[in-house]
Amino acid sequence: MMSEKYLLDTTNDGEGNIKIDDDVIATIAAVAAEQVEGVVELQSTLKASVTDMLGVKNLSKGIKVNVGEQETIIDIYVTVEYGKNIVEISKVVQEKVKEAIETMTSLEVVEVNVHVSGIAIVDKEKVRA
C-alpha cells in the first residue's frame, strides 16, 4: 500500500498527483550506495532484520528516509572495506545517492548522512611467507 504523504506533483492540471512510498526512495538509495566501490554492505535496521528473518527480500535495509512534499533527507548505514579511505567512500556514497534519488523522483535531496557502522575484510586469503 502506497503512503499518502509523499506528494511530488501538486499541479492542478486534472491529471492527479504522484506519490512515491518511502521504501521506493530507500531502495533507490540502497542500489546507488551498494554500487560504490568500497561499500561492502548496508547495515540492517531492526525492521530490516525482522523482514530478513521472515524471508522477505528487503533492498532498503540500512536506509532511513525522511520525506517532505518536495525534499528528502537520507540516513544510510554502511559497512566499508578495510584499507579503503572511509571519508572518500562516504563522499561518493553521498553524491551517488543524491544523484539517483533526484534523477528518479524529482525530489530535492537536502542531506545524505552516511553512518559508517562497520568495517569488513573482503579478501579472506592470508599472505603466507
Kindly describe this structure.
This protein has 129 residues and is of the alpha+beta class. It has one domain (22-120): Alpha-Beta Plaits. Helix content is 32%, strand content 26%. The protein contains three helices and four strands. The chain has helices at residues 22-34, 46-53, 86-105; strands at 39-42, 63-67, 71-81, 108-120. Strands 1, 2, 3 and 4 form a four-stranded mixed sheet that branches. Strand 2 (63-67) and strand 3 (71-81) form a beta hairpin. Helix 1 packs across helix 3. The N and C termini lie far apart (58 Å). Mean pLDDT is 81; it is low at 46-51.
- Give the terminus-to-terminus CA distance: 58 Å
Instruction: Assign the CATH superfamily.
Output: Cation efflux protein, cytoplasmic domain
CATH fold label: Alpha-Beta Plaits
Task: Characterize the largest beta sheet: strand count, sense, and whether it forms a barrel.
Answer: 4 strands, mixed
Outline type: elongated
Q: What is the N-to-C order of secondary-structure elements (H for helix, E for strand)? A: HEHEEHE
